[in-house]
Amino acid sequence: MLTYVAVGILSLIAVLHSALGEAALLRPLFSKPWDVGIPRFAAERIFRFAWHLTSIAWVGLAMAVGGVPLVHAVASVCVLSGVVVFAALRGHLAWPLFLAAAACLWISVGAVSTTILQGVSLCGAVLAVVLAGLHAYWGAGGRWGMDAAVPQRADGTPAFKPGPLVCLAVSAACAVLAALLIWPSVAFAPLMVRVPLWIALAVFVLRAVGDGKQVGFSKADHSTDFAQADDALYSPLVVGLAFACGAALVLA
């Protein structure tokens, strides 16, 4: 009986923390002028999701106290936290880390079926095929979408201009990646498949983290057209490819 009382108290704390925090702290704070040295919209969203992640953690505690296995309770908190961060500020590194932690926990206890892993891997293969076709189009001289795909300096000028050979090389690499992602779903994956998948996973993780300047979650300038597209689309797609490589490796 007292266990259920504890669950109720923890759940109530979580609800009150979010509701009262929004009404008495966050909204009044956001209505006032202030500056913390980063873009105002980003600061507001970070404050908001950081506040509500505490509530989600308390819900996780309630789940664990209520009898949900600890691994599942923690993984659920990670998923909910990742979704909240993704919805609030897609360009923040926390959401893929939360989702990766949840995936590791559920895979470790066998809670992720082979079908799900195959689905993630094959979705990554489809994305790789699309990217291969797009880069082949650019390599053949096409221009649609290319300007938005190249990192930009602070003045908006391209940081570099990829030539046809570079585009075709990336297209070939994406085609090979698609084959590597499909392989573990249909046949035994030998070392010559697993090693390139590990390399691809490392490349995508590094690309997602970024260079601290123009690309990835760590980029310093989020104001250029490329940077905004990177936050909204490119980095999430890179994270998706990293998860697809991870799923293929688990299958392998």
3D structure, described in words:
The chain has 252 residues and is mostly helical. The protein has two domains: 2-108, no CATH class; 114-251, no CATH class. The protein is built from eight helices and no strands. α3 (70-88) packs antiparallel against α4 (94-108) and α6 (164-186) packs across α7 (191-209). The longest helix is centred in the N-terminal third of the chain and has 29 residues, at 2-30. The chain is flat, with a radius of gyration of 21 Å. The chain starts with a helix and ends with a helix. The model has no long low-confidence stretch (mean pLDDT 91).
Labels describing this entry:
mainly alpha; 73% helix
Helix/strand layout:
Layout: H1 2-30, H2 40-65, H3 70-88, H4 94-108, H5 114-139, H6 164-186, H7 191-209, H8 225-251
Shape by Cα distribution: flat
Query: Helical region count?
Result: 8
User: What percentage of the residues does DSSP assign to strands (E)?
Assistant: under 5%
Q: Using only CA atoms, what is the Rg?
A: 21 Å
- What is the H/E order? HHHHHHHH
Cα end-to-end separation: 46 Å
Strands, count: 0
Class of secondary structure makeup: mainly alpha
What's the rounded overall pLDDT mean? 91
Domain module count: 2
Helix content: over 70%
Unreliable segments of 5+ consecutive residues: none
The biggest beta sheet, please?
none
